[in-house]
Amino acid sequence: MEHIAALLLIVGCSDDLVQCRELPPPISVYETVEECEGNLQPSISLFTTKHPQVFGQCVEVDPAIEEEDAELVWDVKPDGTLYALIEVPEIMVASSPESREKDYLSQE
User: What is the pLDDT of residue 54?
Assistant: First the structure.
C-alpha cells in the first residue's frame, strides 16, 4: 500500500462564493506534498473556464491517520480563502453497566 502524504482539493464556486462544490482533480492523492504542490496550478487551470471562482489546496495527510476514519473537511470563506483539513471523528463506545460487570474478575 502506498503512503499518502497529501490530497489535492479543487473547489469551484459562483462569483459571489455562495455556491461551491468539490471538483475532481486529475490526480487526487500524492506520496509527497511537493508533488501535490507541483500539480496544484495546472490542476486549477483545468477548471478556470468552467467556474467563475476556482480554488485549490494541497492538504497534508498525517500518516498515523487510518484512511477509512479520516474525512476531508473544507470551506470557502467570504474573503475567498479556502480552508481545508483532514479530520478524524471522535469515536465513542457505549456500554451498559451489565457488560462492564462481566469484564471484572472477582477474587475470593
Answer: 97
